[in-house]
Amino acid sequence: MKTIQNNLENVNWRRVSELFESVGWGYRSPEKIEESFRASTHTCFICTDKQELVAFGRTVDDGIYYALLVDVVVHPDFQGKGLGKTVVENLKSKLAGYNFVTLTAAPEKDGFYKKMGWKRQKSAFIWPKDEKQEQQHCLSE
Known about the structure:
By secondary structure, the protein is of the alpha+beta class. It has a single domain, classed as 3-Layer(aba) Sandwich (Aminopeptidase). The protein contains five helices and five strands. The chain has a five-stranded mixed β-sheet with strand order 1-2-3-4-5, with helices on both faces. The chain is globular. The N and C termini lie far apart (47 Å). The mean pLDDT is 92.
């Protein structure tokens, strides 16, 4: 059993921070996480029947043309159970009519999105913030 929540009421931001760390994305302060989610157009949180937050995601978009799915996270103990797909489909359903809906997959997670029908872009670019990000997300030229 799972509960899907699309608003920010009663979100445990410390737990969200813990989930980021559990998937290897490093520490993010609960206060900054909350600030970023409040600036997002759409959010999705999934809790177990015991109200334990185990998955989430959000969008960053202009409300009309362009949308980006970001921060799709599922606790490692709950991966492979369809929760990530539920988050992505929930968010994607709110973006009907947009000209471009994109995402950046975490390193080595592109197969997850390909299985759901997402396609690799011919031309997508990133301005890497550091060498690690460049190594993880950039093609060597």
